[in-house]
Amino acid sequence: MDISIIDKNFSLNLYGISGTPINRNWTETGFKLMDEMWKQIKSGGLKHKGLNVWVYEENNKMFAGVEMEGGPLTDIALEPKNINLPKYAYYKHIGPYKQIGSAGSKVLNELERRGIKTCWPYIEIYGHWTADETKLETELLWCLK
Q1: CA 29, CA 22: separation in Å to the nearest integer?
Q2: Buried-most residue among 112, 121, 125, 130 (CB within 10 A)?
Q3: Are strands 61-67 and 88-94 parallel, antiparallel or unpaired?
Q4: Is the pLDDT at 71 greater than 70, yes or no?
């Protein structure tokens, strides 16, 4: 596995929607949050960078967001979320979304084997869509202690 340990600050300024997965169904919850977020973005004609970002947080919290074009936004119903990871593990998953969970588990097992401790948040950044699932790219980032 090609896992990178990056000791350089990573930051994102997102706008989106938070939620708590029912029965720990992260995927269903993530899609619901993302769909509602895009509905609001489209109805408001908001300019964005187009990449979906899912943020997994402590206490079973989840956030689906996107980076917006321009500066901070006001007068919108979307929640702002600023992410700062001073040190993190990075892995790029290439392949179907349904394999992300398995890939993430393998990364966590490898980090544990190396004695590297993770903390919240864990982030998935989804690349641009392609109909060929074998070419889908998703960046996975784990905050490190």
Answers
A1: 7
A2: 121
A3: unpaired
A4: no
Four-residue CA torsion sign, 62, 141, 104, 50 = positive
Specify the pLDDT at position 15: 95
Torsion of CA 114, 116, 120, 125, to 10 degrees: -50
Assess contact for 71 and 79: CB atoms under 8 A.
Answer: no
Mean pLDDT, the chain, rounded, equals: 94
Paired tokens of 115: 């004695």
What are the respective helix, strand and coil percentages of the chain, to the nearest 5?
Answer: 30, 40, 30
Query: 21-58, pLDDT tens digit by residue?
Result: 988 899 999 999 999 999 999 988 889 999 999 999 99
User: Which pair of structure tokens corresponds to residue 93?
Assistant: 């998953």
- Under DSSP, the state recorded for 40 is H
- Pair 95, 136: CB distance under 8 Å: yes
Per-residue tokens: 12: 């994102």
Domains of the chain: residue spans and CATH: 4-144 (3.20.80.10)
- Please list, residue by residue across 32-57, b when 16 or more beta carbons sit within 10 angstroms of its beta carbon and e when fewer do: bbbebbbeebeeeebebeeebbbbbe
